[in-house]
């Protein structure tokens, strides 16, 4: 197996491989190109993302600056918004669903390193995939660690470190991130009433 094949399979691999170094270099050029676009360059930003990411849906907004390790290992669904300073270390697959929102300085880390110092010193590392399901909201400064899935419609509080899977339809937060409560019909009723007040003021 090549080092890239090992990386994408979640096995130990070495990043100082010619193929991976070339891929990472190309991604840094994409990072630089995207981050240097003007706020007026909406179409240009969309084209860069389409050329760069593994898959990108419609109505996708990433406020610069952003940083990806590879880009090609990340897929993003429709109607996605990320505030500034998004970091995605996508040595493994990152799958972001439809209707997802990220606050500023959200970080998705698929990359991991061996606990044993001698093995780590051999420059061996690994990656585990991250899945963000539909309609999730991650608050500012949330960090998602390797191998985590966050279930649909869940909300992760600002500053949380997500080390384990979070189910659908919950509010979670903390370090490590834990379920605070379920999202219920009470929430739905409250926010629909607030929406009705908003519409009356139009």
Q: Report, as a whole number of angstroms, the end-to-end distance.
A: 61 Å
In total, the number of strands is 20
CATH class: Mainly Beta
What is the chains' assembly state?
Answer: single chain
pLDDT under 50 segments (min length 5)?
A: none
Number of domains: 1
Roughly how many Å is the radius of gyration? 18 Å
Work out the helix count. 5
Helix % is 25-40%
Shape designation? globular
So, CATH architecture? 3 Solenoid
Mind describing the biggest β-sheet?
7 strands, mixed
- CATH topology tier name: UDP N-Acetylglucosamine Acyltransferase, domain 1
Sheet-strand content, in percent, reads 25-35%
**Major sheet: arrangement of strands:** 3-6-9-14-17-19-20
The CATH homologous superfamily is termed Hexapeptide repeat proteins
Helices and strands, in order, run as HEHHEEEEEEEEEEHEEEEEEEEEH
Secondary-structure-derived class: alpha/beta
Mean pLDDT: 96
């Amino acid at each position: 197996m090549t080092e890239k094949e090992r990386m994408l399979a979640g096995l130990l691999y070495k990043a100082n491989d010619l193929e991976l170094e070339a891929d990472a270099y190309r991604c840094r050029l994409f990072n630089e190109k995207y981050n240097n676009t003007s706020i007026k360059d909406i179409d240009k930003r969309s084209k860069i993302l389409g050329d760069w990411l593994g898959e990108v849906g419609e109505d996708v907004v990433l406020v610069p600056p952003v940083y990806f390790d590879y880009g090609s290992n990340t897929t993003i669904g429709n109607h996605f918004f990320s505030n500034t300073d998004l970091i995605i270390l996508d040595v493994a697959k990152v799958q972001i669903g439809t209707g997802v929102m990220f606050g500023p300085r959200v970080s998705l880390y698929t990359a991991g390193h061996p606990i044993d110092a001698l093995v780590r010193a051999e420059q061996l590392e690994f990656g585990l995939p991250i899945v963000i399901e539909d309609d999730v909201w991650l608050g500012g400064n949330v960090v998602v660690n390797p191998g985590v899935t966050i279930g649909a419609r869940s909300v992760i509080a600002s500053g949380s470190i997500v080390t384990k899977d979070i189910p659908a339809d919950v509010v979670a937060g903390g370090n490590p991130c834990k379920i605070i409560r379920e999202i219920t019909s009470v929430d739905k009723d409250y926010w629909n009433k607030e929406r009705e007040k908003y519409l009356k003021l139009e």
